[in-house]
TrEMBL record:
<dbReference type="GO" id="GO:0005737">
    <property type="term" value="C:cytoplasm"/>
</dbReference>
<dbReference type="GO" id="GO:0004053">
    <property type="term" value="F:arginase activity"/>
</dbReference>
<comment type="pathway">
    <text>Nitrogen metabolism; urea cycle; L-ornithine and urea from L-arginine: step 1/1.</text>
</comment>
<keyword id="KW-0378">Hydrolase</keyword>
<keyword id="KW-0479">Metal-binding</keyword>
<dbReference type="GO" id="GO:0000050">
    <property type="term" value="P:urea cycle"/>
</dbReference>
<feature type="binding site">
    <location>
        <position position="229"/>
    </location>
    <ligand>
        <name>Mn(2+)</name>
    </ligand>
</feature>
<feature type="binding site">
    <location>
        <position position="227"/>
    </location>
    <ligand>
        <name>Mn(2+)</name>
    </ligand>
</feature>
<dbReference type="GO" id="GO:0030145">
    <property type="term" value="F:manganese ion binding"/>
</dbReference>
<keyword id="KW-0464">Manganese</keyword>
<dbReference type="InterPro" id="IPR014033">
    <property type="entry name" value="Arginase"/>
</dbReference>
<keyword id="KW-0056">Arginine metabolism</keyword>
<dbReference type="InterPro" id="IPR006035">
    <property type="entry name" value="Ureohydrolase"/>
</dbReference>
<dbReference type="InterPro" id="IPR020855">
    <property type="entry name" value="Ureohydrolase_Mn_BS"/>
</dbReference>
<comment type="similarity">
    <text>Belongs to the arginase family.</text>
</comment>
<feature type="binding site">
    <location>
        <position position="125"/>
    </location>
    <ligand>
        <name>Mn(2+)</name>
    </ligand>
</feature>
<dbReference type="Pfam" id="PF00491">
    <property type="entry name" value="Arginase"/>
</dbReference>
Amino acid sequence: MKKISIIGVPMDLGQTRRGVDMGPSAMRYAGVFERLERLHYDIEDLGDISIGRAERSDDEGLRLNLRNLKAVAEANERLAKAVDDVIKRGRFPLVLGGDHSIAIGTLAGVAKHYKNLGVIWYDAHGDLNTAETSPSGNIHGMPLAASLGLGHPALTNIGGYSPKVKPENIVLIGVRALDEGEKRLIREKGIKIYTMHEVDRLGMTTVMEETIAYLKGRTDGVHLSLDLDGLDPHDAPGVGTPVIGGLTYQESHLAMEMLAEAQLITSAEFVEVNPILDERNKTASVAVGLMGSLFGEKLV
Ligand SMILES: NC(=[NH2+])NCCC[C@H](N)C(=O)O
Ligand SMILES: [Mn+2]
Ligand SMILES: [Mn+2]
């Protein structure tokens, strides 16, 4: 039986919209623990990682185009340790965000346990910026690049090693907003990507069949990093960087169900839920529903 450990990461320093630090609370309130308990998992909630404060004057971060670099890096070190611990105890880490900068710490904790970790990046964005290419200086737009070993050492060396993941072990799904530097990187590294164009043409069934077949052959574990803004803002309005034309609620449940069937996923995180921007906790509830499907919930 799978043993699941929930880790909350109330991080909002990787971007500028307040409120995403309440994401873990919102998902707990939406019943994540009870939902998975009903599926007969051995489940524990480890509470939240402590997040420092933004420095009063973040001169260094602003100079580097890496907002709140120090506080983001420190929190990610703590998260990496917590995730590492959970895996050492033979349990499945389920990380609740927080903005997407926390994927740096999650992956740092996960990747050392695998020779060839696969990553499914379910997101409207590529999150493949570095300080050099970022239009915003927001670290939540950089975690996948950092995990590839690209960017500032304070981010790439979390957990004391780099890189965490190889470009050929990554699959991006749902992408519809990329900055120029990110496009270049995807081409250069040959990263596998299903933009909304491919999802619309092929359908989610084929996208997931191909993704699963691709990763099964080449990886020994797969991390799911699910940014709620991968979904259309109609279905997930409570996110800081919404992009229209996204994945539907139905497509997303299908994707999770197919992953459950394939028994591919060995760690997961759900990020960017912002209750202040949400409508009656809708986005947190959608996130928890997706977790239900990922962990094998069935209608009959
Ligand atoms: N995890 C996210 N929601 N990332 C959004 C990133 C947006 C933009 N590409 C940036 O670098 O600022
Ligand atoms: Mn995103
Ligand atoms: Mn993201």
